[in-house]
Amino acid sequence: MAFEWLTGGSMPQFWKNYLSLFDIDEKNGLKRYVIFDMVTSGLDWKDDVILSIGAIGVHGDAVEVGDFIQVDILQENSTVQSVALRGVPVNEQNEKVVEAEAMIQFLNFVKDATLVSHNINLDVEMVNQALKRLGLGRIKNPLMDTNALYQRWKGFSDDTHATLDELCEALKVRKNDRHTVSGNVYITALLFLKLKRKLEI
Amino acid sequence: MKNPVAERIADFLKRFPPFISLTYTDLIAIAGQSKVIYLEKNQVLFKGGDALHTDFYIVKEGAIGLSVTSDMEETLIDKCDEGDILGLRPFFAKNNYLMTAKAREDSLVYGIPIVVFQPFVTGNKDVLSFLLQSFASQSRNPYDKERSGKLISENTIYNDQAADIQYFQPIKYTRNPITANPEDILKFIAKTMANSAIGSVIIQEDQLPKGIITDKDLRAKIATGLFPIDVTADKVMTAPVITVPENISVAEAQMMMLKHDVGHLCVTKDGTDKTPVTGIISEHDVVAAQANTPGVLLKQARRATRSKELKYVREKLTDLIQNSIDKNIPVAHISNIAAEINIAITRKAIEIAVERIGSLPPVRFVWMNLGSQGRKEQLLLTDQNNALVYEDVPAEHYSAVKSYFMELAERVNYALNKIGYEFSPNGLIAGNELWCKPVSDWISQYNTWINTPEEKSTGISTTFFDVDFIYSVPAIENILTENIAKSINRNKRFFAYLAADTLKNPPPLGFFRQFLVENDGEHKDSFDIKSRALEPLIDGARLLALSQNIFEITNTYYRFRRLMELEPKNADLYEECAEAFSTLMRFRTEVGLTSSSNGRYLNLNDLSKSDKVKLKNCFQPINDLQDLIKNRFSLTYIN
């Protein structure tokens, strides 16, 4: 595995495309952020898997509603014990795809945008594990964590932790639809817009 | 793919007009291309004067204030809450935003691209009429509740309905347009267009419209060398031309242009190309009709052929001023617009007079508007004060030239009188032999005033330092102003007399801070706002501006603004003076409009308490200004 970059020729096309996006230094136009959230089978990134992943784009200072993706992942062992953990039902009616296809769709959507999520480290690690299972490298995108942004705005140290609900209270974001992937993504996107403005990012 | 975020937005939109009239599928499609924007309190969404955005907006949460801003004041016009739409201007106009939209609290707005929504506007009558209404009410400011009681306008009857409805009224367009035949040579068509100063010619055959040739065609097809210049019209015309029926409304005309992406519409008897051409509507007609009336008035003034039409323009200008005053638009801006139209009227009156005389002027000349017109502060129909300067001529031609200009001046004076500007009671008009003379005579006249400013003559001469040159010939204008500048420069005596004259006006307040009113005569017990409040400011501004060699600015407000720059240490005082002047002008104009007078006398009983306070606040800067003048021009010594 360690030498896979030497045999780069054998990597799948989508991955090559994804990597090539980071070769270009000059970026023009509005910066794109992708806010994402996922439902997983648990909190252990070694054993648990992604069940569903949703993401939406933010261009400059606006959420682009059309710039949206949601992928539900077909599970090989259907005895997924996840639901109770995050209290999120996985019953959105989207067609389910296998994990590999989901990663292709996700990375094609994300491109070279800055990834944003609440407690992003776990989420990104879940993605990295999925990519590892495909024999590919790690996510290359710049990352931003809404929790960290919030703590910075509040002037607390980075390791303080606040939940998404606490952020909603503090930043006055309505919590409708809180417990679906798309709902969480949208709420996180609004939180991000507000924090972005307050921190003048 | 299903997009739950878009569904959520569609669920919100469907509760509000105009989205109520659309299907849920359409709403999902619209929502899917929208964006969500967060605005922090006081964040600006768009600013007056900004280029148009590609989106219009719906408030999701919070409140957005719409205001008209100018460098001096910001007037809140409307507040948009949940479900209100704003930023509709791109649908209807191509020029920049007029208003500023600013979040009054933390807000979320949805932005919907105009291109996405456009098909629903043209395709759905309910949507169109809703948008038109919103647009009309937001851009023309329905009567603003917050303002009542602030100024004396509470006594004026507000009647702006006409302006709103105007949008749905038939558009004014060119009837019996210039047309050409398909086999006409392009070069001659272009010549006709140039001669008549028009941007398009309809190509007709047996009176039926076949096509149109516009500036754009000439630019794209001839100037680029695509076709030779002697090609026939049918080769280069744009066909078919979009036709519309007579009596189309401003709104409809605009929709047609947007729909077909054209700048001209051909009017025919029944709206099809099977009936004779009766007119042409250009984009300019649409813009003029909606970008509010100043444009139309200017156009009408420029196209007038008789003084009766100019009279109509002047009457409309009064309406416009009334509306602008009601809308609390800064007086300096209103004055600018009014001045432009007044100038256009004067110019046209001169042109008509030249035409009536039947021969061109023998030498070049300059028409000078003096006094309030010269200062571009004439909001009410006050007296006309003007003069005429013509080039020097050899002695043998003098009497012929002189009689030509005397006749011209008299005709213009009479025309202006008919239009509504009364003759000056002092005979200060160009038709007066004294004020219609060649440059050299004017120079010696000015020199007399400047070098021997006896009290008697300064009274009249000050008006001659507030000059606006119309029909200007730079050569004459320069000779005059340079000469004045030279003889005025550091002329202590002149300024001392001017200063004495400035301080001559009666004071506004008595010892007990009570208003000083007229003791007798027709206006017993009214307050003379002109001589007690406005004139001290006007005279002061003139004196200080001239002493600083400011000749190009004659407007009192702008004189103070310029003085602020030149004398930073007195900037505060000058700013107060400029503001006081604006406020006083507003009072005077409102009174004048209500009582159809020149607004000189204010009946104090008509003023509310807060108006009286406001008025009194204007007097302190006058006092301070007069103190400054006393010190600077060492008047104690002269007196």
From TrEMBL, chain A:
Domain Exonuclease: 32-201
GO biological process, one term: DNA metabolic process
GO molecular function: exonuclease activity; nucleic acid binding
Organism: Flavobacterium cyanobacteriorum
Protein name per the record: DNA polymerase III subunit epsilon
Automatic annotation (TrEMBL), chain B:
InterPro entries documented for this protein: CBS_dom (IPR000644), CBS_dom_sf (IPR046342), cNMP-bd_dom (IPR000595), cNMP-bd_dom_sf (IPR018490), Diverse_CBS-Domain (IPR051257), DUF294_put_nucleoTrafse_sb-bd (IPR018821), GlnD_Uridyltrans_N (IPR005105), RmlC-like_jellyroll (IPR014710)
KW Transferase (keyword) present: yes
Pfam families, per the entry: CBS, cNMP_binding, DUF294, DUF294_C
All residue ranges annotated as the Cyclic nucleotide-binding domain in the record: 54-138
Alphabetized UniProt keyword annotations: CBS domain, Transferase
Single annotated GO MF: [protein-PII] uridylyltransferase activity
Domain of life: Bacteria
Coiled coil: none
Domain CBS: 173-229, 237-297
Keyword field contains Nucleotide-binding: no
Protein name in UniProt: Nucleotidyltransferase
